[in-house]
Amino acid sequence: MKKQLASFRDFLATGTLGPLSPQMSLIDVAKLLGSPDGWNTNEDAPVPLYWFFGKLEISFADAAPYRINWFQIEQAKQLKGKFEPVTGRLKLSLGKFSGKTKPSAFLSAGLWDLKRTKVHYAALSDSILLNICAGCIKVHFQVDTSFVADGDVVRHLEGAKLGRLLRDIDPRTKVDSIYSYPQPATEEVPGVFNWRALTGNDYLDILG
Fold it and tell me: Which of 110, 148, 167, 188, CA to CA, is 20 to 30 A from 48?
């Protein structure tokens, strides 16, 4: 079957990946994409509720009609070139984006209402967690924390001036994964980490 072409820019702006919408059910996905490359099973579920199609992973609700909880493009740091195969039936037209696109570049691309877009960041052990939530889209980033001289990321985030911190973080990011939800996206595991949030406008203004 000929691959369908999806615009990466449109996906980021709307949460819809070509013909794939986060409002779909399991049977809709099966008709659209065919059998998955693999799945995770749960003994309590009558059907597999986590499907894999190449870089695309889909989580379904545990009750009929098994609607999508979310889907994600995993290993997004590997996105490069003009086109990127996502599944056997779907490929992305990347335009100017790639797995190396920085948070500031996403925010400056005219994709989202920056007053409503949130950038969340937090420290966890020796890692910095960073994501952008815009509408039903959430973009997770990996951050190279080698700039923290003593390796104490938690203390560094507590003491660093925000402008300097963002200028250290932004160029040291790679896209980790991109999620699409049937409802507005929020920070991951609310309340578990000491999340801090900026609007997209504030992030760019402070970054300078």
Answer: 188
